[in-house]
Amino acid sequence: MKNKLFIIPLLLLSMSLSAQNLDTHKKMFQNAIQLKDASSAIIAAQYIIAQEGWASTYVDSLAVLYYSAGNMVSCLAICEKILSQNPNRLDVLEVKGKSLLAQNRLFEAIEPYEKLFKSTNDISYGYTLAKLQYSGKRLMEALVTVNNALEIKTPEGKADVKVVEPTDNRGGTQSVVVKAALHNLRGLVVYDLNPKNNQIPLACFEEALKLEPAYALAKQNKETLTIVEDAQKNPPASKEEKKEDKKDPQKEKKGKN
Q1: How far apart are CA 158 and CA 176, in angstroms?
Q2: Where are the alpha helices (DSSP H) in 35-171?
Q3: ∠ CA 224-218-216 to the nearest 5 degrees?
Q4: Which of 13-27, 53-67, 82-96 has the lowest mean pLDDT?
Q5: Domains in the chain and their CATH numbers?
Q6: For 236-243, what is the mean pLDDT?
């Protein structure tokens, strides 16, 4: 009986110390966030989760911290764990998608962006999804996604959504209206589906340039396709035609004489 009475205070003391430690680590986490110290924040979050379990609200924060720190493998592992319990967490789906993109796992990134676009009808998700489908040669799916995204109207009073696009192969970028980027992508998809028909892709690039006259990628695509079209209309002469065009100077002289 005495032993039992002795154990109870020890348990209460242990629980009190554990609660104090938990509070301390939560304060450490907040301080680390304020100081932008990702490493310390990750350690504090790990301790809190070890105490509170995977139902802790700090699990989401840990996933974002891993992403910010560039640890995409750990970020993805946490996202998968959260989504296994709640597959409809759109915020976690977005972090998962971004993590896969950062690892260049483009094919795997299609699945979270499909869910995001279907659930939100957000034009920026639609553009990302269409680009992923295009890069994976899923051309018909990409075309459907582009067409659906282009039908989305910008709410009144809100600015057009913009995306960052490359301007060259040296790392240059520019911000363009997402609908211009969608028209440019549509041109690429349509051309790949039917390379013999240049008119529709050209119209798509021109539509992109109407929305963004300085859009470098659309300009390059239009110029390239115009050169291709000119070459198709005026193919180079064959060897036989070149031979026929060449005249023998000696024969011409004899003919004159």
Answers
A1: 16
A2: 38-52, 58-68, 72-85, 90-102, 106-120, 123-135, 139-150
A3: 100
A4: 13-27
A5: 15-104 (1.25.40.10), 160-234 (no CATH)
A6: 60
**What would the pLDDT profile of 81-104 be if each residue is shown by its tens digit?**
999 999 999 999 999 999 999 999
pTM across the whole model: 0.81
Tokens read off for 45: 């979050």
pLDDT for 250 equals 54
What is the tens place of the pLDDT at every residue in 221-236? 999 999 887 777 777 6
Q: Which residues contact 205 (CB under 8 A, 6 or more apart)?
A: 183, 184, 187, 218, 221, 222, 225
Exposure b/e, 191-211, CB count within 10 A at least 16 = b: beeeeeebeebbebbebbbeb
| Rounded Cα distance, 175 and 23, in Å | 44
Tokens encoding 207: 């539509």
Q: Angle, to 10 degrees, between the axis of helix 178-193 and the axis of helix 216-233?
A: 30
Half-sphere exposure of 246 (CA within 13 A, CB side): 9
Are the CB atoms for 149 and 182 separated by under 8 Å?
A: yes
